[in-house]
Automatic annotation (TrEMBL):
Ranges of Acidic residues composition bias in the record: 228-238
Transmembrane annotation, as ranges: none
Keyword DNA-binding (UniProt): yes
SUPFAM superfamilies registered for this protein in UniProt: WD40 repeat-like
Name of the protein: DNA damage-binding protein CMR1
WD repeats: 357-380
PANTHER family: WD REPEAT-CONTAINING PROTEIN 76
Recorded GO CC terms: nucleus
Pfam families recorded: WD40 (PF00400)
Organism: Aspergillus heteromorphus CBS 117.55
Length: 528
């Protein structure tokens, strides 16, 4: 129409539209005032619209033990909003939930049999776990191999070449694939072999206090095929194993004294050390703080080779403790502790042949060497024999029988300190070393960036090797286990088909060339 005046028809049409809109608005207002329907809500912003179109997150199944009391509406219970009754009710519910969570983490101080704490696996029916034979006969690029046959062939030293060949020929246990050997429900945190040479008996402790036990001498049964249905799958049973729960929190360390092969000592973040009788299938608390409310997480445990009665341990609060199990805990001074670090001690070990010396690894980036004789003389202001600092925290310090200390650190190095070469055998009490004198003799580059979901990598020596060459193993983030000599030469890189996770917790048998690795899914790899 341009600038022309509106026709009479158009004027009447617009007037009719305005009159209709006014009528609808009036009717809507009347309906709202009478409560027939709620007022129209404003449209959500564009940001909210895009959010509502996102795919819904699938609902996760909640474990029965994680269920919390469901909150109910105060209005439905007849309680006025913001009233003192409502606030008090909410506080009571919160306190009850917190108390229930604390109760789950409190250690169990009573004695019990294995069958009373079985999580899954075989029950023991009163039989000895380790058997008579053990008691009577004694004790880079992701996933790309960085050590192999070519490195062995290039070795000039005959003894080193022979050992490299021997260690590299270790094979995965063929009875079952690693992904079928699940010994703990949660992430493996610590492992140990039983010292017996009659069969590979492995113990694994996980993050929630479960202890898995695997006898790797068992043979895989021949699958039984059904005669009635040829298409039916063959019965293929999993390996026989036992999983019990002696602790309420992470099992951080384990030890079996070679002169006392029926006892397994387990240390835990629940502040306790328990002795498990493998012959009687029982568990007894050997050490813990006087009150169950005292939280002193234990990070490591060790014993002297010449004394199977004294326990040594470290804590996440930087303490070092000693207790003679023959003395009642109620007796004054039966337990002795020293504050050795302001930050957590992640790992420690005694010098096997001179147990008054021990090494600690700490979050404060230090590896320290201590003399127990000096600690006994001076309770306060204790001074180490020597200390060395790394660029980042040190995860573990492991002593071998030849006087060497191997450490792993978050600066991606393995360091080897040779104290025997420094004359440790002839040191008198009070001997000290400067940091320059305690520098590592060998440094090996090794990826130690485990992240949050993989257990920290720690070196572990073979305590009684059957040759003059010392050796230790450590997990490899490329899903291998690396084996090194005491001089830092790599001896082997153990792998195999079916390893789907990092065998972060790697351990050597005391004397046999058996190596085991534990994963974050609670499974075990075994090389023999």
């Amino acid at each position: 129409m341009g600038n022309e005046e509106l026709s009479e028809f158009e004027k009447q049409r617009l007037a009719n539209i305005a009159e209709r809109d006014a009528l609808l608005k009036k009717l809507t207002m009347d309906a709202q005032s009478s409560g027939l329907f709620p007022p129209k809500m404003p449209k959500p912003a564009a940001k909210d619209q895009s959010r509502s179109k996102k795919k819904k997150t699938p609902v996760k199944k909640i474990k029965e033990e994680d269920l919390q009391p469901r909150r109910t509406s105060s209005r439905l219970r007849g309680i006025a909003a913001e009233s003192e009754v409502a606030k008090r009710k909410l506080e009571e519910e919160t306190e009850a939930q917190q108390a229930a969570e604390r109760l789950k983490r409190v250690r169990k101080s009573d004695d019990f049999a294995f069958n009373e704490m079985v999580v899954y696996g075989q029950k023991l029916s009163g039989e000895s776990l380790i058997g008579v034979d053990v008691v009577t006969k004694g004790v880079a690029m992701p996933y790309q191999r960085t050590f192999g046959d070519d490195d062995i062939q290039k070795t000039a030293d005959k003894d080193l070449k022979a050992l490299r060949k021997e260690m590299s020929e270790l094979k995965l246990w063929e009875a079952w694939e690693p992904n079928r050997i699940k010994v703990t429900p949660e992430r493996v945190y610590t492992m140990t072999f039983h010292p017996t040479e009659t069969k590979p008996l492995i113990f694994a402790g996980d993050k929630l206090g479960n202890l898995g036990i695997l006898d790797a001498s068992q043979e895989r049964p021949i699958p039984i095929k059904s005669e009635t249905d040829e298409d039916e799958d063959d019965e293929d049973p999993d390996p026989i194993l036992t999983t019990v729960k002696p602790h309420t929190r992470t099992i951080s360390s384990m030890y079996i004294h070679p002169s006392k092969p029926t006892s397994l000592y387990t240390a835990s973040y629940d502040s306790s050390i328990r002795e498990m009788d493998l012959e009687k299938s029982t568990s007894v608390e050997k050490y813990a703080p006087e009150s169950t409310s005292d939280d002193v997480p234990i990070s490591g445990i060790d014993m002297a080779l010449d004394d199977p009665n004294v326990l040594y341990w470290t804590t996440l609060y930087g303490e070092f403790g000693r207790y003679d199990t023959r003395a009642p805990r109620s007796k004054p001074n039966s337990v002795t502790t020293w504050q050795l670090s302001e930050k957590k001690i992640g790992g420690f070990s005694l010098y096997p042949t001179q147990s008054h010396y021990f090494a600690t690894a700490s979050l404060d980036r230090s590896m320290r060497l201590w003399d127990l004789r000096m600690l006994e003389r001076k309770k306060a202001d204790v001074v180490p024999v020597g200390e060395h600092y790394s660029r980042l925290s040190v995860s573990h310090a492991a002593f071998n029988s030849a006087g060497q200390i191997a450490t792993s650190s978050y600066d991606d190095t393995l360091k080897i300190y040779d104290l025997k070469a420094k004359g440790v055998v002839s040191w008198d009490a009070g001997h000290t070393l400067s940091e320059d004198e305690l520098r590592p003799d060998t440094v090996v580059r090794h990826n130690c960036q485990t992240g949050r979901w993989v257990t920290i990598l720690r070196p572990q020596w073979q305590q009684n090797p059957q040759s003059c060459i010392q050796r230790f193993c450590i997990g490899n983030m490329n899903r291998f286990v690396d084996v090194y000599s005491g001089s830092g030469d790599q001896l082997a890189q153990l792998g195999g088909d079916g390893i789907t996770a990092v065998p972060a917790v790697a351990v050597f048998h005391r004397s046999k060339n058996w190596v085991a690795g534990g994963t974050a899914s609670g499974k075990i790899c075994l090389w023999m």
